[in-house]
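quick one, two chains, predict together pls
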Amino acid sequence: MPFYSAEATPRFSEGASGSLRLLAYLGLAAALMATDLRSGALHRFRTFAATLVQPLHAVATAPLQLARRAREATAERAGLVAANAELRQQLLFAQAKLNRLAIVQEQNSRLRALLDARQKLGLRVQLAELIDVDLDPYRHRILINQGLRHGVFVGEAVIDANGVVGQVLEVADEQATVILISDPGHAVPVRVQRTGLRVIAYGTGDAQRIELPHVPFSADIKAGDVLVTSGIGGRFPPGLPVATVYEVLSDDSATFAVAQARPLAGFVHASELLLVSDEMLALAPLPAAEVAPELVGPPSGLRTPAPTEAPQ
Amino acid sequence: MSRGRESLWWVLLSVLLASVLTVVAVPESIRVLRPFWLALIVVYWCIEAPERFGIGFAFALGLLQDVLVGTLLGEHAFRLAIIGFIVLRFRSRLRFFPMWQQALAVAALLLNDRFVVLLLRAIAGEFAIDWRYWLAPLVGAALWPWVFLLLDDLRARGRPREP
């Protein structure tokens, strides 16, 4: 084509090739999204990539951390003393409660043993701290500073001092993404503490509200009821507080009731979180093995007089 | 040649800055107002150097943000590819717009992007929004002149150092 110079050619075909390239990229993006949504094929890549961008998150949190450290360093002595005293008091109350609880628990396990119920295994608890970065404001996710290296796994429950926060969604090397129970894509199986009614609580996209749809009108549920995890599904250990019901309405079809509940966990203000998981049966020592020697052997207060008999 | 390298550094710096701004913590009440920083970066570089930073560049930045904020892999890539394409298509006009018109164009781009997000998330699963969802594009457009001037100024300053 002697008429076209090398520079001129792209201009004529720009429209068509541009659209084709856009379509190709959009197709690629759509394929990626579908794969990511429907299968775990990209899981490894995500873990790897999330580990790669960790420094960026670190840079983003640096100013805030600096400010916090500066505030801590220059905090008034009096303020610290007051805070300390208050914490002591809280600890005392907590300790007293715990002591009473220990008695109840002991009683509980004795009763369970009488009933021959399955021994309840302990909880593995791990402290995690919130990383102060904002992820997408319309997806309720947070980042915590514990990752693969600390034994965090996908699906592990995350709680704070007041209640369930969410569960681990994605784990990188040193950090993990947590999906909150308020995310519209999240559901947690709960039990009404007062009545034992089992329901499922869905996130609504509003941090202050989760929803219990399709509750039969005949069911006993009312404002003020506390919802705790039921343990069904195996993700959340049973008995963790989740939310309090504040309103029970009828749904659009007027065939079911819808209960609205307010999460107990302070998503916005909590900076210290706990990772909780049911201890695996394989990892925990079998309870029977621990108990057996005591039952078989002599009571610990008595001693057999064997050494004195030996010389005779 | 040396100019090409110089501008690559600026691109890298602007991308890093934008990604930090994307995740840096702000008070809860203004979180939803956060502009789509990487989109502004894509618009700038697609206008300034379209032969080097086109749809592919936008796509790569999108993947970066997907990983950064933990969205579905490809979501931001999809959105930025569309933005890159539109900017390239109208580049010759956008370039010579006065600043306020350019800002309006950016607002339109970002609003369009909001619809794309709605579409994508409606397909992928539940997604709850409120009216403040539509404010972020306006913030982005209001910031556009400053982003543009800042990047232009930085590049102009950087240039004389390289002969």
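Chain A touches chain B through 48 residues (CB under 8 Å).
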